[in-house]
């Protein structure tokens, strides 16, 4: 089935288009995490595995990227391989979308641009690892991720493992409050910090079931309150890296970044890569584990939101 209401600038796979047309649950996935968030080949293995998890739980995965200038909703295995292995894939946030589309080049989409393209396609649930946010030292660098402003305007629920302490977690939560974005701890009173279940910050709200997340999404958008919902899902206990341990590594990665003079859009990819090096790959294992965990929750939320709860086939 090829729905006719699709946006003319998007290419949606038949699988995703059919699921959307039938009102079946769909989960968006981003591609910066593939191209700029993890090393090859763990990145493509993760991307393939996560799509499989979503599918096995009765939802349709839609990994999003720009290929040859065309925003794509749903990718083939070859596309994932290209995004994972080519050095010339641009990291594309919202401000970069016009450039990559007009130039006909490849782009890996961040949380912000993935949200925007997902919403254009009619997808309301998105699974990722970690959000961008307010960087430490933002009072002088002004480095605040466009992920936050996007969450203030675009109607997509984002399942993540919280915010890494490469960012200023407290300021990120303040900014999300200012932007009117509900931030819920999933099964947790504490806001998680990606590698660790704890962050030292309380989650502003707590929700314990996928059905309750879906109810919040309906309430928010039903009231005309535009913008996203952050579902902060703590990494499983058995996979976490204790906050004090990873904290020292993050401080060292930040110092190395400053010494190299790296800033702007290169900051997050540099820090993620440096943390993998400094932990001898332990951070990568934790990162993959938390994405899997988020995929399971995202599929369940998508099913509830679509009125297709687990148990109904
Ligand atoms: N945090 C991670 N892994 C990632 C990113 C953030 O743990 O891959 C990526 C996401 O795509 C996020 C982006 O949207 O980095 C934020 O980049 P910036 O801070 O430049 O907005
Ligand atoms: Mn930035």
Tell me what you see in this structure.
The protein is of the alpha/beta class. The protein has a single domain, classed as Indigoidine synthase fold (3-Layer(aba) Sandwich). The chain contains 13 helices and eleven strands. Strands 1, 2, 3, 4, 5, 6, 7, 8, 9, 10 and 11 form an eleven-stranded mixed sheet that branches. Strand 5 (90-92), helix 5 (97-103) and strand 6 (107-109) form a beta-alpha-beta unit. The model has no long low-confidence stretch (mean pLDDT 96). The site of pseudouridine-5'-monophosphate has 17 residues, from helix 2, helix 8 and helix 12. Belongs to the pseudouridine-5'-phosphate glycosidase family. Catalyzes the reversible cleavage of pseudouridine 5'-phosphate (PsiMP) to ribose 5-phosphate and uracil. Functions biologically in the cleavage direction, as part of a pseudouridine degradation pathway.
Task: Give me some keywords for this one.
313 residues, alpha/beta, Indigoidine synthase fold, eleven-stranded mixed beta sheet, 13 helices, 45% helix, 13% strand, binds pseudouridine-5'-monophosphate, binds manganese (II) ion, Pseudouridine-5'-phosphate glycosidase
Give a short summary of the structure:
It contains 13 helices and eleven strands. The chain has helices at residues 14-21, 32-35, 42-56, 77-85, 97-103, 111-121, 138-141, 146-151, 169-178, 210-222, 243-260, 267-278, 282-305, and strands spanning 11-12, 26-29, 60-67, 70-73, 90-92, 107-109, 125-127, 157-160, 183-186, 205-207, 229-232.
């Amino acid at each position: 089935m090829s729905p006719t209401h699709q946006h003319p600038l998007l290419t949606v796979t038949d699988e995703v288009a059919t699921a959307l047309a039938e009102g079946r649950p769909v989960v968006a996935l981003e591609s910066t995490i593939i191209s700029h968030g993890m090393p090859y080949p763990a990145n493509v293995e993760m991307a393939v595995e996560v799509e499989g998890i979503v599918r096995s739980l009765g939802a349709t995965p839609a990994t999003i990227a720009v290929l040859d200038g065309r925003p794509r909703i749903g990718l083939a295995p070859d596309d994932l391989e290209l995004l994972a292995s080519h050095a010339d894939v641009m990291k594309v946030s919202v401000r970069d979308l016009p450039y990559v589309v007009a130039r006909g080049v490849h782009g890996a989409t961040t949380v912000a641009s993935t949200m925007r393209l997902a919403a254009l396609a009619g997808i309301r649930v998105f699974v990722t690892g970690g959000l961008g946010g307010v960087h430490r030292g933002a009072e002088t660098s002004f480095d605040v991720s466009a992920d936050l402003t996007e969450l203030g305007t675009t109607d997509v629920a984002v399942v993540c493992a919280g915010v890494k302490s490469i960012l200023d977690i407290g300021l990120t939560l303040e900014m999300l409050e200012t932007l009117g974005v509900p931030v819920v701890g999933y099964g947790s009173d504490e806001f998680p910090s990606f590698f660790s279940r704890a962050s030292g910050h309380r989650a502003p709200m707590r929700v314990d079931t996928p059905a309750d997340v879906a109810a919040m999404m309906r309430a928010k958008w039903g009231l005309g309150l535009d913008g996203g919902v952050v579902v902060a899902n703590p990494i499983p206990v058995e996979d976490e890296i204790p906050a004090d341990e990873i904290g020292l590594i993050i401080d060292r990665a930040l110092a190395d970044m400053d010494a190299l003079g790296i800033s702007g859009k290169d900051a997050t990819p540099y820090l993620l890569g440096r943390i993998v090096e400094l932990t001898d790959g332990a951070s990568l294992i934790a990162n993959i584990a938390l994405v899997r965990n988020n995929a399971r929750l995202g599929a369940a939320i998508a099913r509830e939101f679509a009125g297709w709860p687990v148990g109904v086939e």
